[in-house]
Amino acid sequence: MSACSTLKLCSYLAKQGNYGARKSLVVCSNVCALLDSKRIHTSSRNFNISGKLAQNQRPDWNRAVSEAEKVVGYPTSFLSLRWLLSDEIANVALHLRKLVGSNHPLLKTAKSLLYNGRNNMQAWGLIVLLISKAAGHLNVDEMEEDKAAGVLHSQRALAEVTEMIRTSHLVHKGLVNIYPGLYPEPAVLNDMTFGNKIALLSGDYLLGNSCAELAALRNQDLVELMSSAVRDLAEGEFLGRRDKQNNPLPDASGACALDDWTTRNVLSAGSLLGKSCQGTLKLAGHGTHLQDQGYKFGKHLALAWQACLDLEPFTNGSQYVPGSMFSLTSAPVMFHLEHDPSLLDEIDNGLESVQNVDYAKVHSAVSKGPGISLTKQLQKEHSQKAMEVLEVFRDSDARTALSNIIVAMGEL
What we know:
Blueprint: H1 3-15, H2 19-36, H3 51-55, H4 59-72, H5 81-84, H6 87-96, H7 105-114, H8 124-135, E1 145-146, E2 151-152, H9 153-172, H10 186-216, H11 220-236, E3 241-242, E4 248-249, H12 257-283, H13 288-311, H14 331-339, H15 344-347, H16 359-368, H17 371-390, H18 397-410
Antiparallel strand pairs: 1-2, 3-4
Helix pairs in contact: 1-2, 2-6, 4-8, 4-18, 6-10, 8-9, 8-12, 8-18, 9-10, 9-12, 11-12, 12-13, 13-17, 14-17, 17-18
């Protein structure tokens, strides 16, 4: 659900006399306007997410996701009406207005959530439901089944939990490490402190609700499984070298690029999607073997997706602006460092802040090295492994939709 479609839906409900929708209509209008009024260049994880770019996506990807939504009857966006119309989210949106002009990272996160670009991980709930439908369910009470979508109500709840956990993690990552002397101007310091409060509380709200939704499923094994995914997300934020704002930097040795990249991204992405796919098969009554296959599928799909995102700044025809920032722990950079460790001298300028790195120099060096081709190979390998896992499921619209998403991702 894009910001525009959300706005139209709120408008319709407001005309029907829905008080919450009226309130949210004002909120949506203001937030969409303020985010459109300020172009935000984001880091590599949310690279070039904008309304304009979303309209210019390659049709294959849009078509694959659109067809997948029809299979399960589920929008890819976390911003469903149930959450959009809540007083808590409405208040957060109103407070965001105060951050305009402050350049607080939370604004970047808000923009990435409102606009439905392919770089969003908001399609994760869709992936979970597609796996659910592809596998089917065993010995389940008919009252538990959403017959229109072909999945269980508990599986739909788990898909929402997955999106909430991911979203809360992204919001929490928007916190700024404020240390003495960083913001000498009192007005700027106040803005950044206020932004931190909103990021912390809104992230906690989402995480708290995800825990409540998870507990309501009354499945202790599932709670333990998803809790371990949250633990992995947290651990991923403390792995390896970091600058003062906790932005990641490559290992000082520049060696073992593949192992380093894989460990980082399994913790920060693969674990959550993999364990969500595993958990949804547990809810359906499947055995441990099929559950393990679900985990493998989610993990490899997440890694293939991340490799695809890492390639964006180095792809011909991309929206990358020369000299702008990108992830220094992306696969092309880390593979290049194995080939040419001397580039670490430039990257080490970012030990204080990654903004001190000459990104034009790093981009030029990586573009001429083997990192790009190795990353493309890495993306294909994980895509192929995800495809192989799909073979364990019977032929169905859901399995075809998952295959189409993997193929479309490789053509981005």
